[in-house]
Amino acid sequence: MPSTTMNTEEVRAVWTSEKGSMAKQTAENRWPKIIQGTIDGICEAAAAGDVEEQKRVESIAIRIALKHLKQGIEQNKPLTPLQDDGKLDIQQWNKQLAEIGECSWANCPWLFGECYMYRSIQSILNSSKHWQNYDVFKRQKDSTFVKSRAAVEELARRYMQIVADNPLAQKEGKEEAKKLLFIEMTEIALWGNATDLSLLANLTLEDLQSLQGRDAIRKSQRNIVDNDIEDVWAYLQRTTGQASRQIDIILDNAGFELFTDVLYAAYLLDAGVATSVRLHVKEFPWFVSDVTPPDIESLFYHLDSSEYFPRHEYLEQLLPRLHEYFRSGAITTTSDPFWTTAFSFHEMLSRAPALFEELQKSYLVISKGDLNYRKLTRDGMWPHTTTYEEALGPLGRQSGVKILALRTNKSDVCVGIQTQAKVDALDEEAPDSAWIRNGKYAVISFNEGK
Ligand SMILES: [Mg+2]
């Protein structure tokens, strides 16, 4: 029962069998590595001194199951129905798999295959007694956050000096300064994506640190291949009179990026852009680094610790403000089972109508990161000159959803490029689709759903 237009239906989703695609590379190279990482992590966790015997014994069965999953990928085995692990969503996954028909790891829709892999890992853990709530990716998430210590302290300093000491919301005649600050804060939230752990294999620590640096943000502005920031600003200026302005942020990654998102939320409140901010998190570990509820606690645990952050001067000023926003309910977190399905957002209306309705009511929905962008655009092989509005399908024209995508380009889909000449220029500048894949180019795409 597709609710999409003819046009959207004609565009095929990318498959892992697609020659030369990021999908194919990911299925062949990255997936086995990710599963090996979970095996190593469980091995290490089970070897810890305080682990009880039963839990240790159970870890062996889990490692065998994970190894089996990894071998299935390496040997291109067919995707088979997930075993009942007592959770309500299993039937839906298996129904969706049945609808796709016969497929294998190296010959399946990329979006489905990748989501199915993360759900399979969770299924193995769900079927255990002692490891159900174990986050197989926590180790990686934490270690990367600690590495971005300098960037965290630098951002805290700038935030306190630029935003908190200048209550711009109250100042008249400072329109240009307000706008520049909005652009700056939005771009920090955008490039925070550069720490995406599931792609860490392709980036060195130097790359990460330079992407987090302020100068790099400046330089990378030219790499925003579809930039609707002016339209977003115009929308916000036009609507400041609305009494309730709730902004929903569909989060991507934990760690440094989550810190930039929480800071962005605080900025949106401090600047009077939003009256409240709701952060959407995942219900279980997903795409390595995606935010789950314990990651929010973990963020504050680390930020509050002067052991992790020895230069605590600006954090000490910033943290009470952030804590207060959470305590008062100005910033809240929420999750929905839909975020951890393999459905694209084109199917939100039929699969999660209540969620769709909530997003319709939102003042502004901000979608963070590559996976959310793939889901927004149905992971479709659109011509790059397709408008963002068209690629959004049911979330686009007349949807009533005001949706802003902040995404560094790390997969096969990218729409909203104004002209074919620009596509050609990008192909020349960054050949072999590098500008769609290497994380050094990005989009700030906005649609008002009118
Ligand atoms: Mg992610």
UniProtKB/TrEMBL annotation:
It is an enzyme of class 3 (hydrolase). Its cofactor is Mn(2+); Ni(2+). Its EC number is 3.1.3.-. It comes from the Eukaryota. GO terms for molecular function: fructose 6-phosphate aldolase activity; fructose-1-phosphatase activity; metal ion binding. It catalyses: beta-D-fructose 1-phosphate + H2O = D-fructose + phosphate; beta-D-fructose 6-phosphate = dihydroxyacetone + D-glyceraldehyde 3-phosphate. GO terms for cellular component: nucleus. The keyword Hydrolase applies. One of its GO terms (biological process) is DNA damage response. InterPro entries: ARMT-1-like_metal-bd_sf, ARMT1, ARMT1-like_metal-bd. Keywords: Hydrolase, Manganese, Metal-binding. Residues 26-424 form the Damage-control phosphatase ARMT1-like metal-binding domain. Subfamily III proteins have a conserved RTxK motif about 40-50 residues from the C-terminus; the threonine may be replaced by serine or cysteine. Belongs to the damage-control phosphatase family. Sugar phosphate phosphatase III subfamily. Metal-dependent phosphatase that shows phosphatase activity against several substrates, including fructose-1-phosphate and fructose-6-phosphate. Its preference for fructose-1-phosphate, a strong glycating agent that causes DNA damage rather than a canonical yeast metabolite, suggests a damage-control function in hexose phosphate metabolism. This is Sugar phosphate phosphatase. It comes from Talaromyces amestolkiae. The lineage of its organism: Eukaryota, Fungi, Dikarya, Ascomycota, Pezizomycotina.
